[in-house]
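The freezer alarm interrupted the setup, so I double-checked each line after restarting. Inputs confirmed:
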Amino acid sequence: MSEENSESIIESSIKRKYKLQAKDVKVWYGDFMAINNVSMDIKANKVTAFIGPSGCGKSTFLRLFNRMNDYVDDFKMGGDINIDGKDIYDKNINVELLRKQVGMVFQKPNPFPKSIFENVAYGLKIQGLKDKAFLEERVESSLKQVALWDEVKNDLNKSALALSGGQQQRLCIARTLAVEPSIILMDEPTSALDPISTAKIEELIYKLKDKYTIVIVTHNMQQASRISDNTAFFYLGELIEYDKTNKIFTNPEKKQTENYITGRFG
Amino acid sequence: MNNIRKNRLKDQAFKIWGIFCTLLGLVLLAIFIGNILIDGILRIDWAFIVNLPSRHAEESGIYTALMGSIWVLLLTTLIALPVGIAAAIYLEEYSKKNKLSTILEVNISNLAGVPSIIYGLLGLEVFVRILEMGASVLAGSCTLALLILPIVIVSTREAIKAVPKSIRDASFAMGASKWQTVYHQLLPASFGGILTGIILALSRAVGETAPLIVIGALAYVPFAPSSPMDEFSVLPIQIFNWITRPQHGFVENAAAAIIILLLITFVMNGIAVYFRNKWQKKFK
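Predicted 3D structure, all chains:
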C-alpha cells in the first residue's frame, strides 16, 4: 500500500462514523445457513446490542468481526466485513493483528489457569513485549479501568481461578483492554453472573464506550435497553430491525420485533 | 409383591457376583506377589543389585540388567516423548477433521493393539539391519519407542482435549497464534495428564521382553552398557533366563529380580496417579 493511499484511508476513517460495516453477509455451517444476507453499519464509540432468541445467529454474527468462526470446521461465508473501511476477510489480513484490535469477552468468564498478573499481561507477552516496568504499568492501568485493582492489587500472583465469577469476568475485560483494542465484542458477558456483578459490568460498559466501540450480544432485554445506544434484532439468521435502542423498545417498526421485546415469544 | 422380591434377589445376586469378579484379579495378584515375596525377598541385598551376572546363582546380581533397563528407559523416553507429543498436538490442534485424519486416528489406535513381537521384528529389520545399529541399546530403545508411541499419542491427545475450549477461545481472541496457544496454554494446562500417560507407557516398556529378545538383546552381558551403541540386557530378559535354569538358586534370583521389577513399575504407576490427581484439581 502506498503512503498516500494509507493516509487517505486514515483520513476517511476519521471522517467515517461507522467503525464496523457488514455487507450482504451470509454464513453457512455445512448446509445450514446461519446468517442470511445481513448488512449493517455499527457506529464508533457507541454500544450496539444484538438481541434475539437462541439460535438466531447473533453470536455467529458477532464472531465474524474477530474471525473466531475460522476455527469451525465447516464454516463458510459470503459478503464483506469491513473495519475502518478495510476488508478483514481479505487474504492479506493478519488475523492475530486483527484480534489485537478487536477484543472479545465471552459468556462464561474464562481466565487462564495462571496468576492474575499473567492473565492481564498475556496479550502483551505474546506480542513479544517483555519490559517488566511496562507490563506492570499496563496491568495496573487495565485493572484500574475495570475497577478491579483495589480488590486484587495485593494478590497479583494468586491464581485467577480463585476470584469470584464477577471478578473473573472483569479480569477478562481487563485482559482484553491491556492490548488496547479499539473494538470490544461481548458475547452475553453477564449471563453467568449474579445481579450485583452484572450491575458492575454494565456500569463498566457504559464507561468504556468513550474509548471503545462496543458490540454486545445479550439475552436480557432490560440490559439491552439500559446500556445500548443502538439495538439490532435478529431472528432465524436475518436482521429484522436495527435502530436506536429507544425506538426499538418503544416503537418498533416490525411486528416480530414487538412480539419479541414484549415477551410474546423467544 | 412376588415380582419385587424376585427383583431384589436378582439385585443381590448380581452384587455378590460383581464383588467376586472384582476381587478375582486382585486375589490372584496378591497370591502371586505373596509367592514371589516368599521365594525372593531374602535374596535381595545390596550385593544382588550391584553384582554382575555369574554362573553361580549366589554370586549373581542384576547390575547389568538393571543398568540396561535404565538406559533403555531413558533413551526410549528421549525418542518417544518429543515424537509422540508433536504428533498428538498435530492431530488434536492442527489437522482438519476429514476422512484422511479419521483414517490416521483409527490406525494409531489400532497400532496400540499390535502384538509387541511384531514390533520386535520391525526393529530387527529396520534398526538392527538396515540402519546398522546392531543389537544395541539404541536399537532396543527405538523399537520400544515405536511400541509405546501409540499409547503416548492417544493419552496426550486425551489430555489436550480435556483443556476447556474456553481457554483456547480466550487465547485466540487475545491474538495468540496456534503455536502460542499450544505452548502457553494447552501444554501447561495438560502437563499432568501428558505426564501420566507417558509414565504409564514407560512402565509398559520397562516390562517388555519379546521385542528385545527378537532384536538380539542378550541374557548374558558381562558389563553394564556405557554408550547407546553397547550390547545390553534388561530385567525381564534376565528373569526369563534365570527361570529357565534348573538350579534352585536361580529360581530365587528370578523371584528377587521380579520383586525389583514390580517395585519399579509400582513406583512409576504411583507417580502417574499422583500427577493425575494433582492435575485434575487444577480445573475444579
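Quick read of the result. Residues 164 and 283 of chain B are 9 Å apart (CA to CA).
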